[in-house]
Automatic annotation (TrEMBL):
Gene3D superfamilies: 2.60.120.1440. Residues 119-219 form the FecR protein domain. It comes from Halopseudomonas salegens. It comes from the Bacteria. This is FecR family protein. Coiled coil: none annotated. InterPro entries: FecR, Ferrdict_sens_TM. GO terms for molecular function: sigma factor antagonist activity.
Amino acid sequence: MSEQKQRRLDAIPDAVRADAVAWLLDLQEADDPEQVERQISTWRSLDAAHELAWQQIEAVNARLRPLASGRKRQVAEAVLHTDNLNRRQFLKGSLGVVLLAGVGSLIGTQQPWLDWPADVFTGSGEQQRLELDNGTVITLGGQTALRHRLIGNTYQLHLLAGEILVRSAPADAEQRLPGYRTQRLEVLTNEVRVTPIGTRFSVRQQADATRVAVYQGRVATQVHDGLDAAELAAGEGAVFARNGLLRSDPPLRGEASWARGLVIAHDMPLHELLGIFNRHHEQQIDWAASVAALRVSGTYPLASQADVLSALTAILPIQVVSRPAGGLLIQPGE
């Protein structure tokens, strides 16, 4: 890259870099990508710096596309920023975009939760979509086990492990079964009961706590061992123990994208990105403290752990080491 072009890139205002990343994430989350593309086109035409920032995204996207394996040729990378990359630094702001069409299908490999009394389960890196008779749609993340049943007029979902995204039927929807009124929905974990009120939300069963995040509508919560009850609105989240509320934990932008097979990060520490992959994959990733705070932004295919790690090693000062006892270790590059 010429020094003149590098100076032009360095001169892009931070606000423009942030806007470019935001538009990129909007495009990946969009229900109507063509509409967002038109909005991006308008934004690019407003200022030369806008156009330059977007051209750089597209240029690096083309440059890193060969990193994809033959089996995952849909994967493409686009780098916006990462600390400590010297001449490999392309823009100051955010790192990377990875795109993948499709989600891995279910496989019959043996997993520990196969012995649990679950009606539906997923394996490492897998997802499954379940639609109930009352119109509720549930997406299961990787390594998730769920029991569901109709008790009287209530659909009861018992999350045994993992994470689900729920889009419940509207409270006033005329979704009926013979002999029943519109069905009520409950989600149970070890710690809490969650009752949606025409909403879209996620529930994650952790080792000794439950995290609930609301994206649309509202949910009512009640812990099992205690009096703590709370109602969460859109944009709110919380972590619960069996005997009460532990802390507020509002959802981050794009975090529910795992239901579409993607992880959308915005200025996210590397260790948080790796932690998300750990939740959905059997092969666990550990990391050295010196690389944990590297910042990443972009869209990453959740089913393609190996491809994502390969791409990250090309654009971050890291290397991936296999541990003799199993699992992977991310450490500083040589």
